[in-house]
Give the backbone structure.
Amino acid sequence: MKPPIEGTHLGKSTAYPNRYSPGLLVAVPRKENRERYSIVDSALPFVGQDVWHAWEAGFLTDTGLPVVGILKLVYDCTSACLVESKSLKLYLNSYNMEKLGPTAADAIKNFVDRVKADLCRLLQVDVAVSFFQKADAEAFDFHHYSLLEDNASSATGPFVDHNENPNLLLPGTVETRSDTAPLCVCTHLLRSNCKITHQPDWGSVFIRMQGPLRPAEDALLRYIVSFRNESHFHEEVCEMIYKRLFDRFRPESLAVTCIYTRRGGIDICPTRATAIPLLPAKLASCHTLTGKLHRQ
């Protein structure tokens, strides 16, 4: 049986390249996981972006001076494929000994242009690329979200489901709301596992929902915790949470953002919403490097 394309590099011992190697990049189709959750590419129930931060990007000037910084990538969730994370890590490491220009500014421009061209070619979608040498710690989209695990009633559990269980979000766990204020909650207790290696992936979830029905906060936290033994890519987890909430509560508006802890120098932060204005503006902008969460 032919191994899945996701397993090209993941779960395998791989030598790090010492020369620029665009052939290392691997595109993974989104279709298979979406079909399992009745998400149809031609009629997506969301808009969104996949946001990547590569915290260990580096290359050389023509004189051999290292240039280091943070690479931010943003591309649309309508792309047929996503880039596989280890292939991106290996690809970016292939630049480490590459001389890309006479000055740091020239090298940065050439690096950004080359990465953009390679990823656009791979994914057949526009990929926005920026390189940062310092961050704006004040740039953050989620200042007014309440933390579910700080809610005493939510944290009491019991937490017995460790495989994604949508029954935790049945109408019996819903509060009817007559006010117009949206529910804005988050949790840092998300844990899922890599689809191929089954290594743990830790993250935070930010949910904004508006409408007459919403999940009770204790049930919502139990549902997020139920991902603990699930094995999916980060983008898939975000879409699964969004689709379950969308199907069960039919909100007027909904936004789900997952910000994962970096692994291998890279973090992935997918965001999905019913409309573009609901996407986290700073995170989804390639021109802004947002402040890090505690575990990023």
